[in-house]
Every structure is written in structure tokens, then in C-alpha cells.
Amino acid sequence: MASYFPRISGALRVLLLALIVSACEDSPVGPDAVIRTAAGSEWVAIRVPEQLPDLSDWESTPHGQLPPMPEPTVLLHSFSALDSWGERVSEEVPRGRFPQLDSAVATVEVSTLLAKDALASGDSVGALHQLARAAGAVRTFSPQSVAHNIISRAEQRMAAEQLEGEQADRAGRLFRAARAALDEGDALLALRRGIYALQLAAGAGIPSIDCRPDEADCESP
């Protein structure tokens, strides 16, 4: 497949690949890992590197209907961010503890290699498709995605257990506060509150309710 980048020369491709290698070697350690346990399950979230571009439009594109082409530097940032994410997972999460995360890591590794091969051959469209696939795997374990899943699980558990009294009140306040935090963009706070709500729904206690002073619906009983 011919390159879709306008007038990207062979020399420029060589330079870009060299920069990719350099960026991956010099990248600082990336996102933090967050591991929480509730209702008999463990949850893991990995911060998404800030420099990872949004390539969601490239994850699935109909034949002949390509999104606007990004600047070549987007590829450089993508490779660097994916490498940073992989390093953090390797350093902070024991391999084998979360099989789905291990699968995501494998997807990122394979897709990154395929993207580099595609770029080296001048297939920048193929490279972007592979990078989008890797970025999608990364975002599956972002604090935002994990918080959303935990909040959904808490809602299901609260409905199934038919909570009553003080336990129902506290779980409800935490559930609402978790959704509010997620809506406000504070995914880590939403994740923590969602875990607390899930623990209460499962019949376990929590040390305290984490709220801000202006949140009347989340005050500790």
C-alpha cells in the first residue's frame, strides 16, 4: 500500500524512525498503576501517558474512508507513549496477575512492531491503524475506563443485593459521588469512590467516605 502521508520521502521516513528509537530510549517512566480489590475481584488501572494521541478514528475505518491525516510527529509521540506505558506496566504490575492486562500488553507490543514495519515500508496508513489498535488496548485500562466499569458493577450489585437502611444510604451516596467525579474528569477519585460503593454493596465496610466539603449528598453518616 502506498504511503498516504503527502510527499513523505524515504529520507524523512529514515529520520522519523531514528527519532522514534531515540524517543523510546529516552522516555521518562510513564503512568502510575492503581490496583484495588472489592467484592472478591481485583481491578487495575494504568495512567495513560499524556503524549498519547487520540487515534480512535483510525481503529476502524471503512474502506476508502480515511480520517484526516495527522502530522508525522503524531507517530513519534505515539511510539514514545506506548513504550512508556509498557515500561510502567512491567515495573508495577506482576505479570500473570491480570490476564486481560497481559493480553493488552501483548497487543501493544505486537501492534507497535507492526506499525514500525509499516512505516519503514512507507505504509503510513497501516502504521496508523496499528498504532490506533495499540492505543485502544492502552485506554481499556485507563482510570476513566476502569472507573466506569467499577461504577457499573457497583450499580448492578446494589440492585441485586436490595440494600436497606444505613448501608443503602452510604452506598447510594458513594455511587452518586463516584459518577459525579467521573463526569468532572477526576477518574482516580471516581475509581476510589466506586470501589467503596462496591464494597458496601457486597456487605463489606469501608474506613471512611472520601468527599469534598461541598458535596452534601456524600457526607459521612
Question: Layout of helices and strands, plus pairs?
Answer:
Elements: H1 10-26, E1 33-38, E2 41-46, H2 73-92, H3 99-120, H4 124-140, H5 143-161, H6 165-183, H7 187-201
Antiparallel strand pairs: 1-2
Helix pairs in contact: 1-2, 2-3, 2-4, 3-4, 5-6, 5-7, 6-7
Describe this structure in words.
- The protein has 221 residues and is mainly alpha-helical.
- It has 7 helices and 2 strands; from the N terminus they run αββαααααα.
- It has a two-stranded antiparallel ribbon.
- Helix 1 (10-26) runs parallel beside helix 2 and helix 6 (165-183) runs antiparallel to helix 7.
Helix content class: 55-70%
Count of DSSP H/I helices? 7
Order of helices and strands: HEEHHHHHH
Major beta sheet, specifics? 2 strands, antiparallel
Averaged pLDDT, please?
77
Query: In one word, what is the shape?
Result: elongated
Strand content: 5-15%
**Alpha-carbon Rg, integer:** 21 Å
Low-pLDDT sequence parts: 1-9, 11-31, 207-221
Overall number of strands: 2
Output the strand order for the largest sheet: 1-2
First-last Cα distance: 63 Å
Structural class, by secondary structure, is mainly alpha
